[in-house]
Write a structure and sequence with these properties.
It is found in: Cell membrane. This protein has 13 helices and no strands. With about 300 residues, it is mainly α. The protein has one domain.
C-alpha cells in the first residue's frame, strides 16, 4: 500500500463512517479495486488497516462533541447526574454488540464480507431509509424525546439495532439512528446518541484489532501478531498515519455537514444514494460473470 492509497482509504473511512451509507462496504470495494483480491498476510493487514483508521474518525467526534463527552466524564466522577445517566445508556447500547460481535465475528468475516452481500445490504438499507424518511415527513417521530430523557431500555433497543450493522454494507450509523427514532428519540437526539455510541463501539473494535492476535494469516507468523504489528510489518507506519489523519479531517467535515443537512432535509438522499450504488454494484457483479470486472 502506498501513500495515496492510504490517503484515499482514510478519506473514504472519514466521510462514510458517520453517514448512513456504510463505511465498511465502501472500504471493501475500494480495497478490492486498488489492492486487488488479497490473501494471507496481505489480506489480514488490509483488514486491520481498515479497522484501525477508524481511530481518526473517533478523534473527530471526540473533538466535535467534547462538551458532551466531558459531561459524561464528570458524571463518572459523581458531579453530573445527567452525564452519569448518559454513560449508563451508552454502555447499555454497546453491550449487545460486544456480546454478539464476540460470538459471531469469525462467521461474519467468513460469510458476509463479499461484494454481493454488501450490495444487497446497500439496497435493503436504502429502502429502509426511504421508508423512515417518508414516515418522518408524515409526522412520525415529531414528538420524540431529547437525549437527556433516554432510558436504559431505549438504549438497549438501539444497541440491538446496531448489531444488524455487523452485516457489511448495512451501516452502523444508519441502524443506530433508525433505532433511536423508533424507540422515541428526536432526530437530533438519535443522531447524537449514534455518534456517542460509536465512540465506544468503534473504539473497542479498533483497540481489539490493533492488539489482538490475527488469525488466518501466513503460517510463518504463527498467529501471534497483533493487528498494528502486522500492518507495520506489511506496510510500515507511514500509510497508517496518513490514513488516520485523513479519516480524522474528513470525518469532522462530514459530521458537521450531516447534522445540518438532516435537520433541513431529512434522510431521503442517503436512501437514494444507497440504492444507486447497490445497482452499480449489481452491474459490476454481473460483468464479473463474464470476466469484465472484479466482484
Amino acid at each position: 500500500m502506498n501513500w495515496w492509497q492510504a490517503l484515499i482509504l482514510g478519506l473514504i473511512e472519514g466521510i462514510t463512517e458517520y453517514l448512513p451509507v456504510s463505511s465498511t462496504g465502501h472500504l471493501i470495494v475500494a480495497q478490492r479495486m486498488m489492492l486487488g483480491n488479497l490473501t494471507g498476510q496481505e489480506k489480514a493487514a488490509a483488514d486491520c488497516f481498515a479497522i484501525c483508521i477508524q481511530g481518526g474518525a473517533i478523534a473527530a467526534v471526540l473533538g466535535l462533541y467534547f462538551p458532551r463527552v466531558r459531561q459524561m466524564f464528570m458524571g463518572l466522577l459523581g458531579k453530573d447526574k445527567e452525564g452519569l445517566k448518559l454513560v449508563f445508556a451508552v454502555l447499555a447500547g454497546f453491550l449487545p454488540a460486544a456480546i454478539i460481535g464476540y460470538l459471531a465475528n469469525d462467521w461474519i468475516e467468513e460469510k458476509l464480507f463479499l461484494f454481493k452481500w454488501v450490495a444487497l445490504a446497500w439496497f435493503t438499507g436504502g429502502l429502509a431509509i426511504l421508508a423512515i424518511d417518508r414516515w418522518m415527513k408524515q409526522g412520525g417521530g415529531a414528538k420524540g424525546v431529547e437525549l437527556a430523557d433516554i432510558t436504559i431500555k431505549m438504549a438497549l433497543m438501539v444497541g440491538f439495532a446496531q448489531c444488524l450493522a455487523m452485516w457489511p454494507g448495512t451501516s452502523r450509523s444508519l441502524m443506530t439512528i433508525i433505532g433511536g427514532l423508533l424507540v422515541g428519540l428526536r432526530l437530533s437526539a438519535a443522531v447524537e446518541f449514534s455518534f456517542l455510541l460509536g465512540l465506544v463501539t468503534l473504539g473497542a473494535a479498533t483497540a481489539k484489532k490493533a492488539v489482538w492476535p490475527v488469525h488466518h494469516i501466513a503460517e510463518k507468523y504463527d498467529h501471534k501478531l497483533g493487528g498494528t504489528l502486522l500492518m507495520w510489518d506489511t506496510y510500515g507506519p507511514v500509510p497508517l498515519l496518513i490514513g488516520v489523519i485523513a479519516a480524522a479531517v474528513s470525518a469532522a467535515i462530514a459530521v458537521k455537514w450531516m447534522v445540518g443537512y438532516l435537520n433541513r432535509k431529512g434522510l431521503g438522499v442517503f436512501g437514494w444514494y444507497r440504492i444507486a450504488i447497490a445497482v452499480l454494484a449489481a452491474v459490476l457483479i454481473a460483468m464479473n460473470a463474464f470476466g469484465l470486472a472484479v466482484g
